[in-house]
Amino acid sequence: MARLNPRAALQGGFLAAFCLLLIAPLTVHLFRAEAEPNLENRARAEWPGTPPLPGQGLHAWPARMDAYLVDQFGLRGQLIGTINRQLHAQLGRFASSRIVVGRRGRIYLGSHIPAEPYALIHESCGWGIGPDHVAAAARDITALLGRVEASGRRGDIFVIPSSAALYPRDLPRWLARQCAASIRPAVRVKAALPPAARRHFHDPFSAMADPALPLPAIPPTNFHWSGVGPDVAEAWLAERRLGLPRLLDLPVRIEQLPSDISSFFPDVEVTAQVAVPSAEGLESCAGWPCFPGIGTAGAKIIDMRRFRGPVPGGERLLLLTDSFGSFATIWFARHFSEVWQFSTNDLWQLTPEELAQLRRVMLEDYQPHRIVMLYHDGNIRPAWAGLMQRMFPTP
Amino acid sequence: MAAYFFTRYRNTVLLFFSLVFYAWGELHYLPLLIFYIVFNYAWGLLLAARPQAKALLVVGVLVNLGLLLHYKYVGFLLTQLNWPLAAMGAGSFAVPSIALPLGISFFTFQGISYLVDIHRGDVQAQRNPIDFAMYKAMFPQLIAGPIVRYKSIAARVKQRRISAFRLRFGVQLFIIGLGQKVLIANSLALPVDQIYALPAAELTMATAWLAAIGYTLQIFFDFAGYSNMAIGLAHMMGFSFPRNFNRPYAAQSITDFWRRWHMTLSAWFRDYVYIPLGGNRGGGGTTARNLMIVFVLCGFWHGAAWTFLAWGVLHGLALMAERGRLGRMVARLPRPGQHAYVLLLVVLAWVLFRAESLEQAAQVLAAMAGFAPGESLATPLARYLDLQVAIALVMGSILAVAWLPRGRRWLPQAPASSPVLALGRDLAVYLSLLLVLAASVAVVASGAYNPFIYYRF
Q1: Cα–Cα distance between B326 and B312 in angstroms, integer?
Q2: A14 and B25 in contact by Cβ < 8 A?
């Protein structure tokens, strides 16, 4: 029997490994029981079907097939997880250009748009924000408050400073220098508002930036605020600005929880230390079933919740929010008898009929004493003003 | 894949998948590719039947060039014509908007070389239409080269053996090319594109240099990576494509650079333009003229824009100057001085190549020369030079000029002083290659920024 040449065997092994690496995704793709879970917060490309005939869309078919393969090929999740893990472990980085790794362990969500990787940071701390932007925001806010008042409700705008505004010194040095040379848009917008509107514009920066807080208002590894941030900001708004009495206290425990941006990076474990309030004693409900009256709008809004406190006689609050709202709603139950929160992030998807039904339930059925519009500082922009125009149209 | 390796009809299989490959990227222009195939096949047979009929050759070359002219240059030429016409108030031509067919420059040059080589008697016309079509459409080289002349693979069209050695060598080259493209070129593409998108007022000296050096490495690893993948795939299928790069940034003169950069294009211009024009046989003036003609054409071959022309002219001028006093001066410099001279000129020339317009090129060059702030709060260097980019720059710089002493010794299966040493070395090389492959696949999977630079040329 011929002796095995170890170098030839090694060469064979190399070729086999190469083929295996190429064939494995296809094999898994063809034989897996179900598609990988979608963790990407977007609709993935669907199977484009068999190629149509020329003249019936054949030209577009390869691009649709490419998109499907890019989104759905076998082992995709494992490969993305591997690169996420290695990038984080070896370089302390994340595979998305939208995440900016700062100093002292803080990470920032830089942008929702890959082409403008620092837009959210700049909008938050004010770099590059011109007087036109400030004037437009002041005009939009004034008009919005006017429309809310015209509908017979008290309206307040609550602008939450995000990490770049609260912790500019933890940004990468070049961004820190830009932010240090800027004035926060919230400050500039407030100054540009007429006095009547200014009274309803609330910026809890000083309360949230207080160095005496037991934990950072925004955990270093979170994009959203959580725990201490909404706790102090809500107390500041309700007691210092709106003059409301505290109806109850919420017990709090400190927990180590997955960071809210860890869903961007499958297989990378990023946690945050968070003060978690207890809903004990509150009647709480989250999601569409809590508001059956809003009909099919519920399936589009998704992020909504309700708290009812044990102490009657307080005000009813309607919270319109972006994604910061879900972390804050429970804290408002300390100062209001009942709190309803709806995220407006997906309001643009609602048909006019769905929107009218939602408004009827929120405003006429619920009859809130007060409407607080809670948005983080990167959100005060023309698109937001457009959404609010849909919510509170000009009479 | 299996269909290719285990069938007698390899050329038919390869042709079918090559046409599918082209249609996948550019279905619209598949008929054009087929026309090129049919025309050059038929014209090759005609030329073979009448080898002395120069007019036939001229017509064949003109048809190939005419199509290239139509698809690549008509818009540019009419735009240039419109300027003086507008100045004279004589109206203007409507400028058609023509999308550039994928790989047209490559398969046009391939067609011309085929016809000229038949006319010269260097190669016999291919009589089998499937075999010819396979050569013309062969997917690894179809859209981004290297420019494979028919005579260089004619012997392998009918008969080729795929050994384990050849298969492994092909896989090795493919992985190296993939790594060059995905891990280095793509990492540099993002900051380069971002800086070139800046308004002139936001450019700084530092960012301009980063863009220039980044692009110098990006274009090399992008194009060399693609070429290596093509050559590797060809080996896996039993063909030997010509080498396209030989450490060009290690050149000691611009003349030397052009012996190492896009070697198949340089050789094409040498054999089908420079030498037929008289080469260097007619004295200094004729040589200089011929060089300049070649480099003007070389510039325009890359794209219909003044920036490409300026790039070609700059290289042509450098080659002309090196044939005179400059060449002697450079030769007297110490090695590092020679490299510095080449790199500086090449980097500056790539600015012309990459810029959207001559105006932008002038702005970037001015910023590099110090006519811009050294640093700016708006666009600091750190904004573009993050850790990943820095690693790609350092690794790219080393790998672009690195020279492995007795490099062939590091190839798997090369002889070694002891069997254990040989086995260990092979194992290290294979594992490194598999690591590069896994990293490249993972990066592609994660949706990293992934443009191919050379595919439209």
Answers
A1: 18
A2: no
How much of chain A exceeds pLDDT 70, in percent?
A: 96
Residue with tokens 């016999």: B124
User: In this structure, how many other beta carbons lie within 10 angstroms of the beta carbon of residue A89?
Assistant: 10
Please state, as a whole number, how many other Cβ atoms lie within 10 Å of the Cβ of residue B449.
14
The verdict on B267 and B171 lying in the same domain is: yes
User: Which of A62, A76, A174 is facing B380, going by the closest CB pair?
Assistant: A174
Residues B236 and B275 reside in one and the same domain: yes
CA distance B18 to chain A (A): 15
Whether ipTM tops 0.90, in short, is no
Q: Do B426 and A91 touch (CB under 8 A)?
A: no
The answer to whether the CB atoms of A10 and B447 lie below 8 A apart is: no
Number of domains in chain B: 2
The domain segmentation of chain A, as residue ranges, is: 130-250+280-391
Domain that holds residue B215: 165-456
Beta-carbon neighbour count of residue A78 at 10 Å?
A: 16
pTM to 2 decimal places: 0.84
Tell me the C-alpha distance between B73 and B100, whole Å. Answer: 9
- The pair of structure tokens assigned to B163 is 């050994």
Q: Are residues B244 and B137 in the same domain?
A: no
Q: Do B167 and A6 touch (CB under 8 A)?
A: no
Longest dimension (CA), chain B: 81
Paired sense of beta strands A252-258 and A271-277, if any = antiparallel
| Residue A224 tokens, joined | 């959203």
Task: Please give, rounded to a whole number of angstroms, the shortest distance from the CA of B455 to a CA of chain A.
Answer: 17
pLDDT of residue B453: 43
Cβ–Cβ < 8 Å for A362, A340: yes
Same domain, yes or no, for B136 and B187?
no
Radius of gyration of chain B (CA): 23
Same domain, B326 and B430: yes
Interface of B with A in 361-380 (CB under 8 A): 377-378, 380
Angle between helices B306-322 and B325-332 (to 10 degrees): 70
Nearest to B413 among A7, A76, A93 (CB): A7
User: Among A153-167, A300-314, B315-329, B413-427, which is the least confidently predicted range?
Assistant: B413-427
Q: How confident is the model at residue B457 (pLDDT cuts 50, 70, 90)?
A: very low
Chains A and B form CB pairs within 8 A to the count of 90
Alpha-carbon distance of A138 to A188, in angstroms, equals: 9
Q: Closest Cα partner for B439 from B140, B176, B224, B219?
A: B176
Give the nearest chain A residue to B391 (CA atoms). Answer: A91
Q: Name the domain boundary from B107, B128, B160.
A: B160
In 3-state terms, chain B is what percent helix, strand and coil (to 5)? 75, 0, 25
**Quick one: B137 and B182 in the same domain?**
no
Beta strand pairing status for A370-376 and A316-321? Answer: parallel
For residue A272, what are the CA distances in angstroms to A26, A326, A386, B261, B318?
37, 17, 34, 52, 60
Residue B302 catalytic? yes
Predicted confidence (pLDDT) per residue in B375-431, tens digit: 788 888 988 998 889 999 999 999 998 776 555 555 666 666 777 888 888 899 899
Inter-chain touch A83–B423, beta carbons under 8 Å: no
Instruction: Grade residue A205 by pLDDT with cuts at 50, 70 and 90.
Output: very high
Domain match, B338 and B248 both: yes
pLDDT(B315) > 70: yes
Instruction: Search chain B and give the residue with CA nearest A265.
Output: B446
* Phi and psi, residue B407, nearest 5°: -55, -35
Choosing from B127, B160, B193, the residue where a domain stops is B160
Q: How many residues does chain B have?
A: 457
**Whether B81 and B205 share a structural domain:** no
Determine the residue among A10, A53, A56, A96 to mutate to test chain B binding: the one whose Cβ has the most chain B Cβ atoms within 10 Å. Answer: A10
The reply to whether residue A6 touches residue B378, judged by beta carbons under 8 angstroms, is no
What is the spatial distance between Cα B295 and Cα A129, in angstroms, rounded to a whole number? Answer: 47
